[in-house]
Amino acid sequence: MIPTSRDSIKIDFDEGVASLRVQNVGVMDAHDLLNNLTNGQGFPSLGVPPIAPVPATVSFDIEWSGITESAKIVNVMQNFRGQFVKTGATINWSAESADFAFQSESPNPDRNLYSVIGHEQNGVFFHLEADDV
Amino acid sequence: MTRVPVPPWRGLLQRKTQEHIRLFHTGATNLTRRGFLGTAALAAGVVSAPELALSPFARADAKSGEPKPIPGGATAFGFLVHHNPMPTTPIPLTAINDPSEIGDFNGVIIDTQIRGLGTGTGLSAPVSFRADMGAMQGEYIGEDGKHHHGSFVFI
């Protein structure tokens, strides 16, 4: 999780539309999942050798649109509540390091698995309201 | 030797991660803060293409008011990550876990579990990827106990 500019996030909750656009943010490319989890130390018991992370940049444009479901969620176990809409989404994603570059296919709505836009409160901001029960 | 101040929440995350490594992964010790943040980024979702698994740069600037992580999260290969991935199956919206990575948070959140194809250097054919990415924007109680506003992206 990294801070980003306010302008990179645009949300219209009522319309079920949002976007997240980030250009050339610096990250470390850890090569694979387990080297990411172990900060480049590999995972010998699973046969994954250590590979040191390298600097990279990523850019992405994710678009949310098309409400398919709307719900108020009140989850006492996890201490969060909020109004959420489930939507469609598309992604355009690219990455570049010194010796590798990756570019996703053109945005394709069929690739969405599960996307939401929400306005939530958790932790100390969580509270029950009269109509929750 | 020059010491770089470590913000409290990062120090806490590092200690907790090292404790977890010591307890459950004795062959892999001394996981750094960058490793933890990478873990968070990873669960937040990056690419099944073998060349890409990304973690944010470690930032040396010491700031108070860093956000606190949510208490729970998901586990990947025994590593607790303070993030609940979006579902990969069409469950009811009311059944999702807290999509925020920030605890004590009041704001808007966007999150997607999405897949696709892509091409990369040295790859002879398109490879598949799946990403769980999003952003949070709003008010939170920072590690310093004070109210803050901010915008954050998880990759």
How would you characterize this protein structure?
The complex is a heterodimer of chains A (133) and B (155). Chain A is mainly β and 133 residues long. Chain A contains 1 helix and 7 strands, in the order E-E-E-H-E-E-E-E. Chain A has one helix at 33-37, and strands at 2-3, 9-12, 17-29, 54-75, 80-97, 100-104, 112-122. Chain A is globular and about 55 Å long. The two termini of chain A are 34 Å apart. Chain B has 2 helices and 8 strands; from the N terminus they run ααββββββββ. The longest helix of chain B has 17 residues, at 8-24. In chain B, the strands form 3 sheets. Chain B has a 3-stranded antiparallel sheet with strand order 6-7-8, with helices on one face. Chain B is 19% helix and 34% strand. By secondary structure, chain B is an alpha+beta fold. Chain B has helices spanning 8-24, 33-45; strands at 54-56, 68-69, 74-76, 79-81, 102-103, 105-120, 127-141, 147-154. The radius of gyration of chain B is 17 Å and the shape is globular. Strand 3 (17-29) of chain A pairs antiparallel with strand 1 of chain B.
How are the SSEs placed, and which strands pair?
The complex is a heterodimer of chains A (133) and B (155).
Chain A lengths: L1 E2 L5 E4 L4 E13 L3 H5 L16 E22 L4 E18 L2 E5 L7 E11 L11
Antiparallel strand pairs in A: 2-3, 3-4, 4-5, 5-6, 5-7
Chain B lengths: L7 H17 L8 H13 L8 E3 L11 E2 L4 E3 L2 E3 L20 E2 L1 E16 L6 E15 L5 E8 L1
Antiparallel strand pairs in B: 2-5, 3-4, 6-7, 7-8
